[in-house]
Amino acid sequence: MNGSATRVLLLALMFALAACAASSKEPEVNPNLFPTDYKNEILFVMPKLLRDPAHVRDAGITDPVLRQAGKEQRYVVCVRANSRGLDGSYPGVKERVAYFYGGYLNQLVDAAPEQCAGLAYKPFPELEKLCMAKSCG
Question: Which of 39, 51, 62, 96 could lock 78 by a disulfide, CB 3.0 to 4.6 Å apart?
């Protein structure tokens, strides 16, 4: 083979390999897929955030809604609960906001007042009974 034929063959091989690499990319995730299992995902994380997850009162949760999160819109769910403190008293209801990406819980953090404003809470008895059903710690 002469030099020019070798270059053409190498060039064709490079294009073929590049095409294979490009087609093997994972499909892009829709960041705003509806979070279908949002309650269970939140129940899994909440015991790690509460001082006393075995003693929770006044638990509430909102339905997932699209809200502005920085420059993007994401599904958010607001959760509130009054968890017993270290001294045994109940200090009051605390709100948290859960952010979802691709249908899954991405972050659960303390909520600023405006983040959950206007959202309708419904009872969340699963959070109040969580540590009765399994060990928390």
Answer: 62
